[in-house]
TrEMBL record:
GO terms for biological process: iron-sulfur cluster assembly. The keyword Transit peptide applies. PANTHER family: TRANSFERASE CAF17, MITOCHONDRIAL-RELATED (PTHR22602:SF0). The keyword Membrane does not apply. It comes from the Bacteria. Residues 38-148 form the GCVT N-terminal domain. It comes from Pseudothauera lacus. This is Folate-binding protein. Keywords: Transit peptide. InterPro entries: GcvT/YgfZ_C, GCVT_N, TrmE/GcvT-like, YgfZ/GCV_T_CS, YgfZ/GcvT. Pfam families: GCV_T.
Length: 339
C-alpha cells in the first residue's frame, strides 16, 4: 500500500517488509518511544459534496457531527450486524479519510463504492497519497514537540500543521498522516527527535494495551461491534439513523443479550498465535468459546492479545488457545471498565 519511493527509503534504514508488515533490524528497548511506519493500514478518501453524509449513512458512528478538529472510530457492518471493517476516521478539509487494515482495504473500497449511486461523493485509494506513522511511548508528546510538531491533548483529537495531521488515538499513542513525498524527511526528523524506529508488531502491541481492536481478513464478520467494546471506546452512535446492521447493533445494546466481550490477555507460548484462532474453556467443552482478534509479541516473552470470549468462560475459569489442552490465557487489565 506504500509508494515505491517510500519503500525504497525505508530499506536502507534497516527496514524489512514482509506480508504487509514492517520490521527493523535494530529492536528498540521495551520502554522506548517508538516510530512505526503504519504500512499495515490502507487509506480511503471520500471527497465531493456528499463526502461525509454518504459515509454517515453506511457507518456505525455519527460522521455528520464530527468536527474538523476531532477524529473517531467507526465500523462498516454486514446487514447481520457483523463488523466488516474497523475504521479510524478524520476530516481533511472537505474530505474524509478512513484508515483500515490493508489486507481488507481493496475489498472494502470496492464494496463501499457500490453504495454511492446518486450521492455526490467519490471514493479513492489514498494509500499512495499519504503516509502514516505511529508514535507510541511515554515521551511521544515530547518527541513531537522536539520535532516542531503540534500534539493533540485529548484522545480522538486531531491537529494540523499544513498538510500534516496528528491524531491522538490513546493516552500515549498518536497517528501522523503526511503527504507521501514528505514522509522520508519527517521520518528522519522524528527519529532525530528521539523516537526509535520499530516494526508493525510494536504498534499492534500499543493498540492491544489501549484496547483498540483492528479487524483484519481473519476476523471479518466474526463480531458485533459491542463484542469488540466498540460502544465503550466511542465507535458507535445510538442516536443516528439507519446504517447496514444498525438493527442488530441497537438490539444488542438495548435488549442486553451480549454474551461475549473483548478482553486483553497474555499467552505464554513460543509459537506465534494468529488472529482468528479459536479459544476453549471448560464451560464450552470442545466447542469454541471465542477467538483471538489481534496478537503481538510481549517484551517479557510470550504474546499479548485482544480476545473476544464468552463472558461466562472469562469469569468461570481457565481459557486455552487453539484446543481444550492448549496454552493458557492469563487475563490482563484494559484501560477502560467493562459493563
Amino acid at each position: 500500500m506504500t509508494t515505491p519511493h517510500w519503500t525504497e527509503f525505508l530499506a536502507p534504514q534497516g527496514a524489512r517488509l514482509d506480508d504487509g508488515q514492517i520490521d527493523f533490524a535494530d529492536q528498540p528497548s521495551p520502554d522506548a518511544t517508538v516510530l512505526v511506519p503504519l504500512v499495515h493500514l490502507g487509506l480511503i478518501r471520500s471527497s465531493g459534496e456528499d463526502a461525509a453524509s454518504f459515509l454517515h449513512n453506511l457507518l456505525s458512528n455519527d460522521l455528520n457531527k464530527l468536527p474538523g478538529e476531532r477524529a473517531q472510530l467507526s465500523s462498516f457492518n454486514s446487514p447481520k450486524g457483523r463488523m466488516l471493517a474497523s475504521l479510524l476516521i478524520w476530516r481533511d478539509g472537505g474530505d474524509v479519510v478512513l484508515a483500515l487494515s490493508a489486507d481488507i482495504h481493496a475489498a472494502m473500497l470496492k464494496k463501499l463504492s457500490m453504495y454511492i449511486l446518486r450521492s455526490k461523493a467519490r471514493l479513492s485509494d489514498a494509500s499512495a497519497e499519504l503516509a502514516l506513522f505511529g508514535i507510541s511511548g511515554a515521551d511521544s508528546a515530547a518527541v513531537l514537540a522536539s520535532a516542531g510538531l503540534p500534539c493533540p491533548a485529548e484522545i480522538m483529537q486531531q491537529v494540523a500543521a499544513g498538510a500534516l495531521r496528528v491524531i491522538r488515538v490513546s493516552a500515549d499513542s498518536l497517528v501522523v498522516a503526511v503527504p507521501a513525498a514528505e514522509a522520508p524527511a519527517l521520518f528522519d526528523t522524528l527519529r532525530g527527535a528521539g523516537a526509535q524506529p520499530a516494526g508493525s508488531a510494536r504498534w499492534t502491541l500499543a493498540m492491544i494495551r489501549a484496547g483498540v481492536p483492528l479487524i483484519t481478513a481473519a476476523t471479518q464478520e466474526a463480531f458485533v461491534a459491542q463484542m469488540l467494546n466498540f460502544e465503550i471506546i466511542g465507535g458507535v452512535s445510538f442516536q443516528k439513523g439507519c446504517y447496514p446492521g444498525q438493527e442488530i447493533v441497537a438490539r444488542t445494546q438495548y435488549l442486553g443479550k451480549l454474551k461475549k466481550r473483548m478482553y486483553r490477555a497474555h499467552i505464554d507460548t513460543t509459537t506465534p498465535p494468529v488472529a482468528g484462532t479459536d479459544l476453549y474453556a471448560a464451560d464450552f467443552g470442545e466447542q469454541s468459546a471465542g477467538q483471538l482478534v489481534n496478537v503481538a509479541p510481549a517484551p517479557q516473552g510470550g504474546f499479548e492479545a485482544l480476545a473476544v470470549l464468552q463472558t461466562s468462560s472469562h469469569d468461570s475459569g481457565e481459557v486455552r488457545l487453539g484446543a481444550p489442552d492448549g496454552p493458557v490465557l492469563r487475563f490482563l487489565d484494559l484501560p477502560y471498565a467493562l459493563p
